[in-house]
Amino acid sequence: MDFLQQYVLQHLGWLPKNIKDAYLELQQEYRARERTGYKNLEQIQAYVFTRFPATYRVCLKLIEQHLKDFEIHSVLDWGCGIGTASLALSEYFQNLECFLIEQDQQAKSYAMQFIKHFYPNNIVNQDIPSKNVDLCIFSYSLGEVSNWQTILDDVWQKANYLLIIEPGTSAHYKQLLTVREYMLTKGAYLLGPCCHTNGCPLKSNDWCHFSVNVPRSKEHRMLKNGERGFEQEAYSYMLFSKIPKNNNDFGRLVAKPRLHGGHIDLKICTKDGKITTPTVSRSSKHYKSLKKCVWGDVIKHELP
């Protein structure tokens, strides 16, 4: 079971009927685009059991792919919710200083409670930092900001790295492309997912997104009336830096590799800003390494 779900069961109580009602209420608010915060503890618990596992695993995957070798001592977690991104970062970076920005005071109070419980050596602040930070992260939150240019202008003055994560839908990706263009005009270096700064080469009926498998607890399945033991979370993201990267990567996998008996079909967005779909046979020297690749991985070498 997820560590935060276990904490909720042990410390915050668990009333299935109340939390199921809270989950249904949250779903209605999401669909009506009326959600501006959590009304009560039951809604927060419903989020912990249904959405937190997915958003947390997305954060972990992106940290593993891009950030784990960086020097990260401080983070500005904008729209932190219950602290998902800060909790994920704390798994990799010790004694992290977290600046939590969240309009829902109840959610912020639980974010502070969760972070202090699991990572007591962290420093947790509730205000925008007056000093510079290593990383600013918007985890499923920038899409809720109407004046995003003003916000990004402000945080970009303070942060060395900027990570923006959004749901993996075509609409959210279009918004990310707008953010991408805006940040490039500000002189930001793009670290991912693109290996180039040209226009996106994907056609209008396709968009750049990735996915992670998320195990479901029995409480998760109960709330969602689900039978499967896992679900897939689709996401899109952009990672910017003030520090240039020596990028010799050939490109990134933008679709799940298709493995056949003696070959692999790949879809790669290259460093030249083009989509290529090579077929790599078993006789290729790269076959064994490519067989281990997953959707979203960087391809280090050019393929025939």
**Straight-line N-to-C gap:** 44 Å
Whole-number total of structural domains: 2
Share of β-strand residues: 15-25%
Q: What is the alpha-carbon Rg in Å?
A: 20 Å
CATH architecture of the largest domain: 3-Layer(aba) Sandwich
- Poorly predicted residue ranges: none
Count of helix runs: 10
Order of helices and strands: HHHHEHEHEEHEHEEHEEEEEEEHE
CATH superfamily of the largest domain: Vaccinia Virus protein VP39
- Top CATH class of the largest domain: Alpha Beta
State mean pLDDT (0 to 100 scale): 91
Overall number of strands:
15
What is the overall silhouette? globular
Query: Which fold name fills CATH's third level, the topology of the largest domain?
Result: Rossmann fold
Largest sheet: 8 strands, mixed
Q: Residue share in helices?
A: 25-40%
Structural class: alpha/beta
Task: Describe the structure in brief.
With 304 residues, this protein is an alpha/beta fold. It has 10 helices and 15 strands. The longest helix is centred in the first third of the chain and has 16 residues, at 16-31.
